[in-house]
Each structure stands twice: as structure tokens, then as C-alpha cells.
UniProtKB/TrEMBL annotation:
Keyword Ion transport annotated: no
The entry's keywords: ATP-binding, Folate biosynthesis, Kinase, Nucleotide-binding, Transferase
Cross-referenced Pfam families: HPPK
A Gene Ontology BP annotation from the UniProt entry: folic acid biosynthetic process
UniProt name for this protein: 2-amino-4-hydroxy-6-hydroxymethyldihydropteridine diphosphokinase
InterPro entries, alphabetized: Hppk (IPR000550), Hppk_sf (IPR035907)
This protein's encoding gene: folK
Length: 172
């Protein structure tokens, strides 16, 4: 079993249509999806608000690299418009691999790696209310590997201050 948590975000173009198309692209690998959340831009304030969502996906045939490849395919299909000069700048679609679990002898175990091509868990997920709030909607008891329960992260700074700005706008 390989299971992953993916974070989707868009703040250019028809954000809702882009996220819906990406979710369709996950096909029967999609296990659960949060609602769509309007979120203030994180890391680079001078840009439009984002529409964010989190998806839980599973597929025995897909490993960690496979989830990243799928994320990149979905981004390409979403137009992949972005300004290369702005690290956290606006974009038509961003799909991040937040964490991956694979079957171990004692049950599912998190994949931990520092490779810059694919760092797991995602190195900034624990700082991002726009990831943790939608994830908590669909998996309230989840743990972010290395950082503990996501509900505890949501109560702790710097994330706690950002939580009130993350607004569920409805199902996708
Ligand atoms: N967990 C991960 N999920 C997605 N991309 C990752 C991950 N770890 C490393 N990367 C690498 O990061 C590179 C840049 O990704 P991307 O353009 O999505 O970053 P970003 O969205 O600007 O910033 P951030 O990763 O902080 O959201 C990708 O080409 C990918 O190889
Ligand atoms: N609210 C929000 N802010 C962001 C997002 C995102 O998806 N949502 N993605 C970014 C890309 O790294 C930078 N900032």
C-alpha cells in the first residue's frame, strides 16, 4: 500500500475549475478530498488569494517518486503558469506532496528523505495553515511525520495565527 497526502493550490485563472480538473486527474486513486478553502497568500503577500484543498490518495503501484511525477503531470495540465523570479509567487496550479506512507512489517510507515528533488515530509507543511486546515477536515487524527498531530500544529504558532484567515468556501 502506498498512501499520500497532496496539497493543491491555485491563485491565477479559474481556480475552482483548475482544482476540480486536477482532482479528476487523480481518478480512482482519490480516497478523500477536503472542501475548497480561500486562503491569504503565504510567503509573498503581493498576489491574489489562493484556493487550496488537500487530497488523500492511495495506490499500491505508485511509490513516492510516482506521487511527485503525478503532481508534476497535474501541474502541467493546469498550465503551470508562474513567475520564476518569485519563489512563492502566483501560479495557476501547485501540487505538493505533503507526506507518503508505505507498507512496512508493522503497518504503514512514513517515507522520510532529504533529497531536494523530493523532500518528505514536505519541509514547509508544518508551517502552513493552508495545508493543515483542509487536511484536518478529512483526517482530524492525522500526524505529520516528524511533527506530531496536525491538530496540535494548528494550535501552535506560527500556524495558529493564520488559521482564522483560512476560510472554507464549499465542496469542490
Ligand atoms: N514534497 C515535495 N513536493 C513537491 N515538490 C517537491 C517536494 N520536495 C521537493 N520538491 C521539489 O521542489 C521543486 C519546486 O517545487 P514547486 O515549484 O512546487 O515549489 P513551490 O511551490 O514554489 O514552493 P513550495 O515547495 O514551498 O510550495 C520541484 O521541482 C520538486 O522537485
Ligand atoms: N495561501 C497560499 N499561499 C501560498 C501557496 C498556497 O497554495 N496557498 N503556495 C505557494 C507556493 O509555494 C506560496 N504561497
Amino acid at each position: 500500500m502506498s498512501r499520500a497526502v497532496l496539497a493543491l493550490g491555485a491563485n491565477l485563472g479559474d481556480r475552482e475549475a483548475t482544482l476540480r480538473a486536477a482532482l479528476r486527474g487523480l481518478g480512482d486513486r482519490l480516497v478523500a478530498v477536503s472542501g475548497g478553502y480561500q486562503t491569504p497568500p503565504w510567503g509573498d503577500p503581493d498576489q491574489p488569494p489562493y484556493l487550496n484543498a488537500v487530497a488523500v490518495v492511495a495506490d499500491d503501484a505508485v511509490d513516492a517518486d510516482g506521487w511527485l511525477a503525478l503532481a508534476h503531470e497535474l501541474e502541467a495540465a493546469g498550465g503551470r503558469v508562474r513567475d520564476p523570479a518569485r519563489r512563492y509567487g502566483p501560479r495557476t496550479l501547485d501540487v505538493d506532496v505533503i507526506a507518503v506512507w508505505r507498507d512496512g512489517p508493522g503497518g504503514p510507515e512514513p517515507v522520510r528523505q532529504d533529497d531536494p528533488v523530493l523532500t518528505l515530509p514536505h519541509p514547509r507543511a508544518h508551517l502552513r495553515a493552508f495545508v493543515l486546515v483542509p487536511w484536518a477536515e478529512i483526517e482530524p487524527t492525522a500526524e505529520l511525520p516528524g511533527h506530531g498531530p496536525i491538530t496540535a500544529l494548528l494550535r501552535t504558532e506560527p500556524v495558529a495565527a493564520d488559521v482564522p484567515g483560512v476560510t472554507r468556501i464549499g465542496p469542490l
